[in-house]
Design a protein that fits this description.
Elements (H helix, E strand, L loop, with lengths): L1 H4 L4 H15 L4 E2 L14 E5 L6 H8 L3 H40 L4 H13 L11 E2 L4 H10 L4 E7 H9 L4 H12 L2 E7 L3 E8 L1 E7 L1 H12 L14 E3 L16 H15 L19 E2 L3 H19 L5 H8 L1 H15 L8 H23 L3 H15 L7 E2 H7 L7 H13 L3 E6 L6 E6 L1 H5 L4
Parallel strand pairs: 1-9, 2-7, 2-8, 3-4, 4-7
Antiparallel strand pairs: 5-6, 10-12, 11-12
Length: 463
């Protein structure tokens, strides 16, 4: 895909791995410790970051190609089941009419027997068939909850433009939507909707994998909100651990060749195999509690590797020398490494405990993913950097009183700071660097943010 489309290999690779996570879902989990019951559902969120016209969407769709034959087969099976159910329902209605006539003759003399007979008859009534779903593109959370009840192993949510997904979550009145998706990230949590029209919908396990594409500008805006440690800093963005932002080539050449059908068939075979995954056949342990999920553990060698990696991560987090959003992001690698290790183990067709090779590759994946996370959390558009430089010059020149409001700065229309978005970005950048300190002032309505200039900056020699 990468060669034929001339896009970074990161694009289809990441999308394929997320698609596999949605396919496996809750069929089997991994318990990353030797004895502990902590379990990880291999559920992944992520996608592609890149400028327009870089073939993000075609690469994503081609990576999802192996799901198409599975979906067609499931749809055909569902259509046949619908026909069978309709025929059974017609016969059942006739039988019910006959049963009603029979019960009328016995209900006066043998009421208890009639009641038991009616119960037995109703217990045999069939339930409408449900379609096996693999993915959805656009849905309300209530409808998604219904789909999850019909597909308890989980679903894949594919959004060609993640920006639209984020915008919907940010709308007033959609706070529950945001909570629902955050619960769906772990794949272990239940959720209950209570709606007047729909009534009560209880989902035993919310498991949603998410993938999509997004351009640098919108992503930067969301990252800026998360860095402010306000309402947007709730951990949603940090859950997109498989979000990649590779460098794109500046060269192009004509590539027109037949796709590698042997490789494609091998991938489709892996998808088919994991769709029909039988936990007992791969050596998964079944807990005593039937409500718990089948699980695998690491081999002894892989366990040693994971324990060493895990200890290194925890010690790194304890140093508290990371930016809060980055610390939150890395903390979620606790589940990311075992998730990837399990998926790679299953794709390889290996049975039994997860081997050291899969654990090693998973650790290499997160080393790679961390470089992309650093890029996303530190990226600033050129306009923001230039605006920050202008603001620094104005502060050192004494042209701005302390404290000040963002709108006061916007009214000044200084060169390089005429765009409100640029002003907010420049102020946010200087806040991160310690030049400014944000405080909230109550006004009787919506609170106003005040920015105080670091006195050490004002006192320093101008230059």
């Amino acid at each position: 895909i990468s060669e034929r489309m001339q896009c970074p290999p990161d694009y289809p690779a990441v999308c394929a791995l997320i698609a596999l996570s949605g396919l496996v879902g809750r069929q089997v989990v991994i318990r990353p410790k030797r004895l502990d019951e902590w379990q990880v559902v291999p559920n992944l969120w992520g996608g592609i970051v890149g400028p327009p016209s870089r073939l993000k969407s075609p690469a994503l769709m081609d990576a999802l190609r192996p799901l198409i034959p599975l979906e067609r087969a499931a749809r055909a099976e569902y259509e046949q089941q619908q026909l069978d159910y309709a025929a059974e329902k017609m016969v059942a209605e006739i039988e019910q009419e006959n049963m009603t006539k029979t019960l009328k003759g016995h209900v006066k003399d043998e009421k208890k027997d009639a009641f038991a007979t009616a119960q037995d008859f109703l217990a045999q009534e069939g339930t409408p068939p449900t379609e096996r779903r693999y993915r959805t593109n656009d849905t309300t959370v209530e409808k998604l909850g219904e789909l999850l009840n019909q597909n308890p192993r989980g679903l894949l949510l594919v959004r060609d433009e993640l920006q639209g997904f984020f915008r919907n979550l940010d709308k007033p009145g959609h706070e529950t939507d945001r909570s629902f998706y955050m619960e769906g990230w772990s794949g272990n949590s239940s959720f209950t909707f209570d709606r007047i029209k729909r009534g009560t919908i209880h989902i035993d396990a919310v498991c949603v994998s998410i993938m999509g594409t997004i351009q640098p500008g919108p992503l930067t805006a969301y990252m800026a909100e998360a860095r402010k440690q306000g309402a947007a800093d709730d951990g949603l963005m940090q859950r997109f651990q498989m979000l990649v932002w590779p460098e794109t080539s500046t060269t192009w050449q004509q590539v027109d060749r037949v796709p590698d059908h042997k490789a494609r068939e091998a991938v489709e075979d892996a998808f088919r195999r994991l769709d029909r995954l039988a936990p007992d056949r791969i050596g998964a342990e079944q807990p005593d509690d039937i409500e718990e999920l089948p699980f695998l553990r690491f081999t002894q060698e892989a366990q040693q590797q994971f324990d060493h990696w895990h200890a290194s991560l925890e010690h790194r987090l304890l140093k508290q020398d990371l930016e809060p959003v980055m610390e939150s992001h890395l903390a979620k690698y606790r589940s990311l490494v075992p998730s990837i290790a399990l998926l790679l183990h299953l794709v390889d067709g290996a049975g039994g405990a997860v081997k050291a090779e899969s654990m090693y590759r998973a650790a290499a994946w997160v080393d790679y993913l961390e470089t992309h996370a650093l890029k996303m959390y530190s990226y600033r558009p050129d306009a923001t950097i230039f605006g920050a430089q202008v603001l620094v010059t104005r502060i050192k020149g004494g042209a701005l009183s302390s404290p000040f409001r963002s709108r006061d700065l916007k009214r000044k229309k200084w060169s390089g700071l005429t765009n409100p978005t640029t002003v907010d970005g420049a102020v946010g950048l200087l806040e991160e660097l310690g030049w400014l300190k944000r405080t909230s002032q109550a006004t009787g309505g919506r609170p106003t943010d005040l920015f105080t200039i670091n006195p050490l900056i004002i006192q320093s020699p101008r230059g």
